Inverse folding.
């Protein structure tokens, strides 16, 4: 895990499935457990889902709250 993954949990949306469009951090724990049992997808989404499962399972979800309140990072001045 790297620190950027935590920010991705509160900004990246599920691209498919029952919870398509929902933030990874907001995917219910039972769905994460289902993925753990059936197999996480390959790539970034699978890595993020597995990380969210660990966070959820260990009751660490509130650690993501400050990241939810932070403005998104990125370039641009708006001018």
């Amino acid at each position: 895990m790297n620190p950027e993954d935590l920010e991705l949990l509160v900004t990246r949306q599920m691209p498919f499935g029952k919870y398509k469009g929902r933030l990874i951090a907001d995917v219910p724990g039972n769905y994460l457990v289902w993925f753990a049992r059936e197999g996480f997808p390959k790539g970034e989404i699978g890595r993020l889902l597995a990380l969210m499962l660990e966070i959820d399972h260990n009751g660490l979800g509130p650690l993501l709250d400050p990241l939810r309140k932070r403005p998104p990072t990125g370039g641009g001045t708006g001018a």
